Amino acid sequence: MAQLSMKQTINSEPKGKFKAGLVRFYRQLDLQLMVIPALILIFIFSYIPMYGIMIAFQDYKIGHSFSSSPWVGMKHFIYFFNSPEFGTVMRNTIVISLLKFLIGFPAPIFLALILNEVRKMAFKRVVQTITYLPHFMSWVILGGLVTTMLAVDGGSINMLLEKLNLIDKPITFLSLPEYFWGILVTTNVWKEIGFGSIVYLAAIAGVDPHTYEAASIDGASRFKQIYMITLPSIMPVVSIFMILAIGNLVSAGFEDILILAADPAIRDVSDVLDTYVVRVGITNYRYSYATAVGVFKAVVSVGLLTIANFVARKSGNSLW
Amino acid sequence: MRDSLGDRIMVICIYTFLILFAITTLYPFLNALAISFNQGLDTSKGGLTIWPRVFTFENYKFVFKDERLMSGFVISVLRTIIGTITSILCTAIFAYGMSKRELMGRKYYMVMCIITMYFGGGLIPTFMLIRNLGLMNSFWVYIIPGLIGVWNMIIFRTFFNGLPNGLEESAKIDGCGNWGTLFRIVLPLSGPVIATLALFTAVAHWNEWFLAGIYISDQNLYPIQTILRQILLSNIVSETAANLDSASLARMQQAKTVTSKSLSMATMMVATLPIISVYPFVQKYFVKGVLVGSLKE
């Protein structure tokens, strides 16, 4: 009904489309009032910062506006590429994100696969409840827990290692560069493995149970069933999540590193693009330079996402 | 059909692994809980596992008496409640408007939203915007930038589109406008999706500590996570140079039994409490919520 009358208004309006549009807009003013304030907020908090990216190509001075600073072209990018930190930061970013991807990505799939083999529902639910828990904690809390566990004075890990006679004196885990990557990746897996497994468990639940029956009649062992039926059935979901994860690959992390790498002694292995932006940008007020580093990161990210999608399309599962 | 020997071994391995894994996940929490209930000086002797050796409430008394920690707790609670309610409400209204086919400019609005999911200004330009808007050192910096969540809008919109058309038509015939339909018919029917999105929003608010640290310098406006971060950091860097105000330090020395470690563990437990207490009740919702979020890619 409403649509019909609107069409009539448009056709009977001789003064052209624009006025008809205004009339139509006015008629649905209540609807427009639902979305326009939200769009204004999105414009302010998302689009203005995008416009603000241009300070990466300027010499921005505090107190100036976005538009009144001198243009300097690629100066800040070149400066970053030639800075002594570039090599360290790039290496750390790449190594940390690759480690997180190679271990953090398959871990929830593995957990989902073995949880699926548990037939006792109560047991399964208890395990799931426990493994979801860290996902809901802030990195501040988890960092506090990790620090406590690894403490030199009575930390549980050092206690255990001493009891087992594996070490003579406690190790200062969080101050030694050689342990940092391992601690970081372990903590990340610990935080997200349970929550990440939800999606895969749901995907597994969608597999036709007759397939398993048929396989077990044919004499397939449980392991073989996982390998031949479950895993291939969840591959589409796996591949979508893999593309998303690859898009995030240059985000080596941020909160976790800020928190776990509290000791400046391990900066050589902990500094990544994001923490570098915080340090030079917020702490040292070098806004233009830090923005340039941020833009560089975004460009690399888009590139990776495109490559990932290209590979996925070849294998038949793509996002777009 | 009976399992073969190999299958039974595998099942035993799986159960053993899962039990061990669950224990390792839970252990750090229990350890921190034990420390928080243990006398501070005794804790520094080491050797605590999951049971307090010299049981005491001192650490908690200290936390609840500390004005800064309690003010942080109140700020966190306020921020979480106000932030969650306003964000869910504003996003739901937005999503309802966007779910209407007749909305003029709908396609353009949608493109405008989706772009923000892939591109952003990054930390520094956002920081500068917040400063130019005069939101630095204001409680509202916790609320206003997060009022509209595009991802949540898309989930709401999908849900609204799935509601039967007849409901809204009959409301219209009864004289309800769009606003009336939304508040009297649509929102009351959206319980599960509201619960899920509210939970995720609330958790994000409760756990956020970094932006509070850079946008706010007035200590009275810090949420508890940011204060806890400072305590833990001072704890790591040096036991004595605690970043606490001098009054707290004096009281801490008076108490003697409270060390900065036992204090930080007690604070940590207080900062975890709200989530732990709602967690069992909302578990069934968020499992569904994750699926709503992920399968609608």
Q: What is the gist of this entry?
A:
The complex is a heterodimer of chains A (320) and B (297). Chain A has helices at 2-12, 17-27, 29-52, 75-82, 84-104, 106-116, 121-132, 139-150, 156-163, 177-205, 209-217, 222-233, 235-247, 255-260, 267-270, 273-283, 287-314.
Question: Can you describe what's shown?
Answer:
The complex is a heterodimer of chains A (320) and B (297). Chain A is an all-alpha fold and 320 residues long. Helices cover 72% and strands 0% of the residues of chain A. Chain A is built from 17 helices and no strands. Chain A starts with a helix and ends in a 6-residue tail after the last helix. Chain B has helices at residues 5-36, 40-43, 58-65, 67-98, 106-118, 123-132, 150-162, 165-173, 178-186, 191-207, 210-215, 224-237, 246-255, 260-295. The relative contact order of chain B is 0.13. Chain B has a domain at 64-221 and 280-294: MetI-like fold. Mean pLDDT of chain B is 85; it is low at 238-243. With 297 residues, chain B is mainly α. In chain B, helix 3 crosses helix 14 (260-295), helix 8 (165-173) packs across helix 9 and helix 12 (224-237) crosses helix 14. At the A-B interface, helix 1, helix 2, helix 3, helix 7 and helix 8 of A face helix 1, helix 4, helix 5, helix 6 and helix 9 of B.
Low-confidence spans of chain B: pLDDT under 50, at least 5 residues?
Answer: 238-243
Compute the number of strand runs of chain B: 0
> How many β-strand stretches of chain A?
0
Sheet with most strands of chain B: none
Strand content of chain A: under 5%
CATH architecture of the domain at 64-221 and 280-294 in chain B: Orthogonal Bundle
Mean pLDDT of chain B: 85
CATH topology name of the domain at 64-221 and 280-294 in chain B: MetI-like fold
Poorly predicted runs of 5 or more residues of chain A? 1-7
| Shape, principal axes of CA atoms of chain B | globular
Tell me the β content of chain B: under 5%
> Which value, in Å, is the CA radius of gyration of chain B?
25 Å
* N→C terminal distance of chain A: 37 Å
Helix and strand string of chain A, N-terminal first?
HHHHHHHHHHHHHHHHH
| CATH architecture descriptor of the largest domain in chain A | Orthogonal Bundle
